[in-house]
Amino acid sequence: MPTLKLTKRTLEAAEPKSKPYELRDTEVVGLLCKVSPAGRKTFMLQYRNYEGVKRKPALGLFGDLTVEQARTIAQKWLAEVREGGDPSRTRAERRASVTVREFEEIFYQRWTLVRNKKSTQKLHRYMFEKYISNRVGYCKIDSVSKKEVKKFVDDLSFAPGMAYISLGILSSMFKRAEEWGYRAEDTNPCKGVTTLAKKKRPRLIRQEEMVRLMDYLELPEGEGGGRSAYTLAMRLQFAFAARVSEILQLRWAWVDFERRRVDWPDSKTGPIWKPISKEARTLLQLAASAAGDSPFVIPNPNDPSRPAMYGAYHRAWRKALAVSGIEHVGTHGIRHRAATDIANSGVPLKVGMALTAHRRVEVFMGYVHLEEPMLYDAADQVAESRMAKLEAARCNVTCGLRPVD
């Protein structure tokens, strides 16, 4: 196994292989970094305790710990070993007493608060207190079995959506428990467990429905339409292929007409920017004439110093669908319709992903729907091509020519 001075650069450059391998440090004897086939890099410390038993506990993941932090922990543990201690056993005994409820607080502080948005933090707390804590909270974190997780899911069969979300939270918790040494590696009891509920894609708003919807959104109320701050927000959501939060939280300070772009300092996926199309410019100019001195593009009608309310926006969306005679679809259906239009416009994939602010191809494609008219046209095109080739082959046979591949 390679022996070298561990540094941030060498560990970042370490590529995963078909089998796990170790990189040993020359600075602290016994300190190593294990690289898994999945690319996970774990700091470990190899030593023998006073009984001569070989130990190799994990110290933490590279990324969560820097090389210098890992060296500091390793040196501290080695000093304890020289005094007759066994830090691996001590940690195992301490962690063996941690319940799922107790680990949830550790997970929340070390992971949820650091990695997730406030809405996800609130959801995590709510789901744990409402569904998880009273069912598996008393169990020891290192002893929860797949059987117990399956029972947990079965007990929530009356609320499959809640079971789906809770299972996702538990799976993430147990994954962190493995990484932080509270469970043995590759023992996540949620692996392979499924629920009745699956994340459903919003149905696609059809083109004939879009005609009726836009007729309603574009006309003033006095002319049979529903033009308001909220219907303007819906049109902006279509124009920017945006999430609801990106439109309702949008500030004028982020809009740059001169450079034709809007910069969101934060979003679900971090900082993003999108170009201002001609359609979007017109809509933003309409918003500017109605916003007054509000810092928000779509201000709260009752308090312009605050953004528009989500509840009012969703109520306005439901009304728009009902008046337009359209079967209900959530507001996220706007983003699906916009992404499908982008994909079908012929722009390169990378450009389409930039317009929706998606970072992974598979996520972007999850928003793109197949439309029936396109499938019918494609079927006719394939049939015509096949018949043309067949006729050409018949002609060649009749004329005694060599068939063309």
TrEMBL record:
Q: Which domain of life is it from?
A: Bacteria
Q: Is Transcription regulation tagged as a keyword?
A: no
User: Which Pfam families does this chain map to?
Assistant: Arm-DNA-bind_3, Phage_integrase
InterPro entries from the xrefs?
A: DNA_brk_join_enz (IPR011010), Integrase-like_cat_sf (IPR013762), Integrase_catalytic (IPR002104), Integrase_DNA-bd_sf (IPR038488), Integrase_DNA_bind_dom (IPR025166), Integrase_recombinase_N (IPR010998), Phage_Integrase (IPR050808)
Q: Does the keyword Acetylation apply?
A: no
Going by the UniProt record, its keywords in alphabetical order are: DNA integration, DNA recombination, DNA-binding
Residue ranges of domain Tyr recombinase in the record: 200-380
Q: Which CDD domains match?
A: INT_Rci_Hp1_C
Family note: Belongs to the 'phage' integrase family.
Protein name according to UniProt: Tyrosine-type recombinase/integrase
Q: Which organism is it from?
A: Novosphingobium clariflavum
